[in-house]
């Protein structure tokens, strides 16, 4: 089951003190599929990184009853490892490791009893995403293949929250549409809270709710349910 998100008075500033993101109030119900759209430089990735507890910020970012901004660094890391699956734009893969090892990396942060299950799911996700040689090191993979390894890694942990930054960006149309279908089906069946930044209208169209970020602020189209 996914987690509820409650944001109050969130402010992210640049190291030089410029306001990058300001969100007075945002509530997202567990199990919602939320798209984040908006122009380049608006603050979409900043919002996603803040939701993962990866940025210093002021205010409250509460997942169920855990306020990320009150946790110490190591507590945030532990929370992220057990609750949040992330698909980053720059993939953050370990070059020397195989696709299979990269896709099951989260097993290292989970109790021993869960590790075999994560490795098994990672192998299944890689196969489902069409990765044919999971034992090859990812250094030799193309951009689209690397994207799929990052996606398999995020999905293998079965986290209650999935945060995705442009998950279809390096895929061709057919692969992107398949991924969107898979992501939506997975989120629906497991009740995962899915929040995805995307310029891809096909993805945005499949979400329950779309938040448009403009100049560091959220503008939600009228008529959408909270
Ligand atoms: N560490 C930082 N120091 C200074 N400015 C930053 C920092 N991180 C982000 N910014 C600025 O904050 C703004 C929002 O950046 P962000 O990456 O969140 O935009 P975005 O909407 O995701 O854009 P894109 O669609 O191009 O990825 C930009 O003007 C960016 O230059």
Automatic annotation (TrEMBL):
Pfam families: ABC_tran. It comes from the Bacteria. SMART domains: AAA. Residues 5-226 form the ABC transporter domain. Keywords: ATP-binding, Nucleotide-binding. One of its GO terms (molecular function) is ATP binding. Belongs to the ABC transporter superfamily. This is ATP-binding cassette domain-containing protein. It comes from Marivivens donghaensis.
């Amino acid at each position: 089951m996914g987690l509820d998100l409650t944001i109050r008075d969130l402010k992210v500033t640049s190291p030089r003190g410029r306001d990058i993101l300001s969100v007075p109030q945002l509530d997202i119900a567990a199990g919602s599929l939320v798209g984040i759209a908006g122009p380049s430089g608006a603050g979409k990735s900043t919002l996603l990184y803040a939701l993962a507890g990866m940025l210093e910020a002021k205010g409250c970012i509460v997942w169920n009853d855990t306020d990320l901004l009150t946790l110490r660094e190591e507590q945030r890391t532990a929370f992220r490892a057990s609750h949040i699956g992330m698909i980053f734009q720059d993939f953050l893969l370990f070059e020397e490791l195989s696709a299979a090892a990269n896709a099951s990396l989260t097993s290292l942060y989970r109790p021993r009893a869960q590790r075999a299950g994560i490795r098994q799911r990672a192998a299944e996700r890689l196969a489902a995403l069409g990765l044919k040689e999971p034992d090859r090191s990812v250094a030799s993979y193309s951009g689209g293949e690397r994207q799929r390894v990052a996606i398999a890694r995020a999905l293998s942990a079965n986290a209650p929250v999935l945060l995705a930054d442009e998950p279809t960006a390096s895929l061709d149309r057919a692969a992107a549409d398949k991924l969107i279908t898979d992501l939506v089906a997975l989120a629906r069946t497991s009740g995962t809270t899915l929040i995805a930044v995307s310029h891809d209208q096909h993805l945005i169209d499949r979400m329950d709710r779309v938040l448009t970020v403009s100049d560091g602020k959220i503008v939600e189209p009228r008529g959408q349910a909270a």
